[in-house]
Amino acid sequence: MKVAVDLGTNAAGEPAELDLEELLSTRLLVQGNSGSGKSHLLRRLLEQSAPFVQQAIVDPEGDFVSFADRFGHLVVDADRTPNELQRIAQRIREHRASVVLNLEGLDAEVQMSCAAAFLNGLFDAEHAYWFPMLIAVDEAQLFAPAIAGEVSDEARKLSLGAMTNLMCRGRKRGLAGIVATQRLAKLAKNVAAEASNFLMGRTFLDIDMARAADLLGMDRRQAERFRDLEPGHFVALGPALSRRPVAIRIGSVETRGRTGRPSLMALPELAQADMRDLIFASAEDEAFTPPPPREPAAPRVSTHELLGRVAAGREKPVAAPEDEDSRSEDERRLIVEEIFAEMLADPDAAFRPVPVLFQDFLTHCRLKRLRGAETDMAAFRRRLSLARAGVTEDVADESWQAVIAASDALPEDMQGVFLMLARAARDGADCPTDEALARAYGSHSPSRGRFLLGFMAERGLVKVEQDFKGNRVVTILPTGWRLVQRGKPVKVDEARARRAARLTTKV
């Protein structure tokens, strides 16, 4: 089916059209300095072709998410793991859905990794799903840089390889690349050289004008015309556009991006004194809506203060046994929970041996005149694990009971760490850091936290992945709860975990 996409008008006022079917075989390169109208051109082209062909837009600034409301495009946010993005890309090809990959707010290196995983997913689709598809990449110099920049070599190689596959080998898979860049000198030559259609906008640097003139087959003296182009005006050449260079003016668009061409607006009419009061107003003078009241957090108890409480308790007379018998089971349970809270409030408690903590627990019980709370070491370890996770044994939630049952597959000293992870996932909190995991285990070494995650993964209790932002994603497999650690990428020490699992099995 032959479809002519209306881009606008030429110098004679006649319609400037693009042969969509030819574009699918020959690809397109758009070049122009910032403010020349590249995004406007892409928007016009994609709007006019949306009813006829499947589209995928790699959007680094979130300008094309408005296509979702007008043309039904799906917005794919990049806050996902690489496997998730690849699976989404393959389903996109299978079901022929038009999408916008929104990379807004991500660092350049993360954007490159996200785009690489997404494009590779489209490229690696099965042969039965090689339907025609336009792939528009705005600011392509970010994803296919000509030279190495501040990003890592790994991210650059992945992104450049995906872009090269799109432009060099994508035609046989039905993928037609449309790349837009501010400068041809910033774009990798292997990517730019595969385009047969060109739309060149306003350019000022001599090297960029000369290269644009060479691509269009123009004389070097004619390269000066690129400086005189107005925003939204381009010189077109290619089998899908025109056999000779022709100037065109891009028409209007139906949708708008989040960012646009800045325009002047009047400044506020305020006296200098009034403006000074607004700028230098103190925080007390501003309107403030107090947040809803919260329960006061329990103050952290230092080791010195805790020892002082123990010494003060020893001086108190011991009550008669009849006073202990008058307490109900609920009251006794609350007292036990308070004892564990006081013990764990000590910053050094996480690094003390369990037998020492057990003796402290018995001492607290005597101070509280709670003789019936004495228990054996195994039961104390269990209670200590639950206390470190911030839960009690009488939780009625079925999902949490499943987590507690699954923790039995771990050694007693690891159960508290697993329950802490599950508690954070259930409450929607961030994933604990390596230091926090090691601390809950009773170690100062962050590598111990990575070892614990690997050991749990070997036992089939958790699944550990990493997304493009460097965040660790941990899934609690018994319930499907998910939590993310923000920050530095962390890898699980799988080799050590396997060795530990084999040693535990032998024992």
Automatic annotation (TrEMBL):
Pfam families from the entry? DUF87
Q: Where is the Helicase HerA central domain?
A: 12-89
Answer whether the UniProt record assigns the keyword Metal-binding to this protein: no
Spans annotated as Disordered: 311-330
The entry's keywords: ATP-binding, Nucleotide-binding
- Its domain of life reads Bacteria
Q: Which Gene3D superfamilies does the annotation name? A: P-loop containing nucleotide triphosphate hydrolases
GO molecular function, a single term: ATP binding
User: InterPro entries attached here?
Assistant: ATPase_Atu1862_pred (IPR014588), HerA-like (IPR008571), HerA_central (IPR002789), P-loop_NTPase (IPR027417)
Which PANTHER family does the entry link to?
Answer: HELICASE MJ1565-RELATED
Name of the protein described by the UniProt record:
ATP-binding protein
The scientific name of the source species is Aureimonas endophytica
Lineage of source species: Bacteria, Pseudomonadati, Pseudomonadota, Alphaproteobacteria, Hyphomicrobiales
